[in-house]
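pasting for the record
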Amino acid sequence: MKKTVMVVDDDGEVRKTLVDVLSSFFEVIEASSGEAAVKLFCKHTPHVILMDIAMPGMSGIEATRKIKEKHPRAKVIGLSAYHDTRGQEMLKAGAREVLPKPASLAVLLERIRWHLEHNNNNKRD
């Protein structure tokens, strides 16, 4: 049985690319907003979430915070195209790590697999 990864990004092209690539390795759920991510997480409980940080409406930071309040063991990997304080805010909200966007397929797969194998709540080792 494939593990489930949720891809959350407001940019349809980015989301489609990630879904297309990751679908070869995982069951993939997609959300276009922070609000949708919170609802879908509660319904499907994916194993790992790739969460864009900067989205209109509910940001990835706030969505991560809401998910982690109800599901403290949720595994969130933040994705950010910005090099500012939002990455640190994402970690404080409960993300396990923040990767630069765009991240290579090899890096994404390696980090997703690492988080699937490690059930603790530590940030990236």
